[in-house]
């Protein structure tokens, strides 16, 4: 018997207590919950128009292509106040991807004539169709600003889509983008970031036919501008569009950051005057070219 056991036995006889070794409980490793992998979007080489558009597409949407902070939420709620037009919040449908899961699923879809891009298009179209059907209206408008970067994909998915291009003075866009993200970026960074959207919209304008609308005209004379839009869409103009907050057609929508404008101005229910345009000489050098192209500042002549 070892001395430790002898001591423990003696202490036990004298006091009734025994020493017992405490075994350390092994620490369990911290379980980190892994996020499920997101499906990779279909590559460009798979993108194509629908093989059977009469059954592959349920809607022919209207896309409102605009830079950020250019009044797209205002135009959306105005259009949604119409009894025949459904313009929901930003849907971001082009960000939705599908995955086959197994090689057999891929083989089965291939046998039906569908590649990954085809299936994504079917998903996007069905979501828009569901929204339109639930609204009980005839025309659906999608206004996510980032759509401008993917106009080619949208045109391939919906060959019969129509496009409204909403422009605003580039300096006003940049200033509003800076104010909307206070503390996130300085004015210089906000200007450069907003310019990306402006350039994307300009590329889409060159490639696609559509109607160009200016935010300044919309806020200065909303009746005249919305009449022009309605004529282009082929619907009768309705006076309730101007006071969108009281139209009764679900026009107020969901004002949340990330889904469109969320500020107090848009919540007013009526068209508010736009901000005063900047002096042409004060326009940031980064914006001068696009501002000239859009007709907001005159071209310099030698």
Structure, described:
By secondary structure, this protein is an alpha/beta fold. It has a single domain, classed as 3-Layer(aba) Sandwich (Rossmann fold), CATH 3.40.50. Helix content is 40%, strand content 7%. The protein has helices at residues 3-15, 53-56, 72-80, 103-111, 116-135, 151-157, 170-180, 187-207, 215-220, 222-233, 264-267, 288-293, and strands spanning 62-65, 85-86, 139-142, 162-167, 211-214. Helix 7 packs across helix 8.
From the structure above, extract its key features.
302 residues, alpha/beta, Rossmann fold, five-stranded parallel β-sheet, 12 helices, extended, transferase
Using only C-alpha atoms, the radius of gyration works out to: 29 Å
CATH fold description:
Rossmann fold
Total discrete domains: 1
Order of helix and strand elements from N to C terminus: HHEHEHHEHEHHEHHHH
Q: CATH superfamily membership, which one?
A: P-loop containing nucleotide triphosphate hydrolases
Keywords: Transferase
Organism: Thermostaphylospora chromogena
Region (Disordered): 24-48
Pfam families: Sulfotransfer_3
Describe the structure concisely:
With 302 residues, the protein is of the alpha/beta class. It has helices at 3-15, 53-56, 72-80, 103-111, 116-135, 151-157, 170-180, 187-207, 215-220, 222-233, 264-267, 288-293, and strands at residues 62-65, 85-86, 139-142, 162-167, 211-214.
């Amino acid at each position: 018997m070892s001395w430790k056991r002898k001591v423990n036995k003696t202490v036990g006889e004298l006091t009734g207590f025994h020493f017992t070794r405490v075994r350390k409980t092994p620490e369990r490793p911290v379980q980190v919950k892994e996020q499920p992998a997101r499906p990779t979007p279909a590559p460009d080489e798979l993108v194509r128009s629908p093989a059977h558009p009469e059954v592959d597409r349920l809607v022919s949407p209207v896309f409102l292509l605009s830079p950020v902070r250019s009044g797209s939420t205002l135009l959306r709620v105005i259009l949604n106040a119409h009894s025949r037009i459904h313009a929901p919040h930003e849907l971001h449908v082009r960000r939705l991807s599908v995955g086959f899961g197994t090689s057999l699923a891929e083989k089965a879809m291939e046998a039906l004539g569908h590649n990954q891009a085809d299936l994504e298009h079917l998903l996007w179209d069905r979501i828009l169709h569901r929204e339109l059907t639930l609204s009980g209206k005839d025309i659906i408008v999608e206004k996510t600003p980032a759509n401008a970067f993917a106009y080619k994909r949208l045109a391939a998915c919906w060959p019969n889509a129509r496009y409204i291009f909403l422009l605003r003075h580039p300096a006003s866009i940049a200033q509003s983008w800076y104010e909307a993200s206070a503390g996130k970026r300085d004015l210089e960074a906000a200007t450069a970031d907003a310019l990306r959207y402006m350039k994307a919209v300009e590329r889409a304008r060159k490639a696609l036919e559509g109607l160009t609308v200016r935010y300044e005209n919309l806020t200065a004379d909303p009746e005249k501008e919305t009449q022009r839009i309605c004529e282009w869409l082929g619907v009768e103009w309705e006076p309730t569009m101007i006071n969108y907050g009281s139209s009764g057609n679900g026009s107020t929508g969901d004002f949340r950051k990330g889904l469109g404008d969320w500020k107090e101005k848009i919540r007013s229910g009526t068209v508010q005057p736009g901000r005063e345009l900047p002096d042409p000489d004060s326009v940031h050098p980064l914006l001068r070219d696009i501002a000239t192209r859009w007709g907001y500042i005159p071209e310099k002549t030698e």
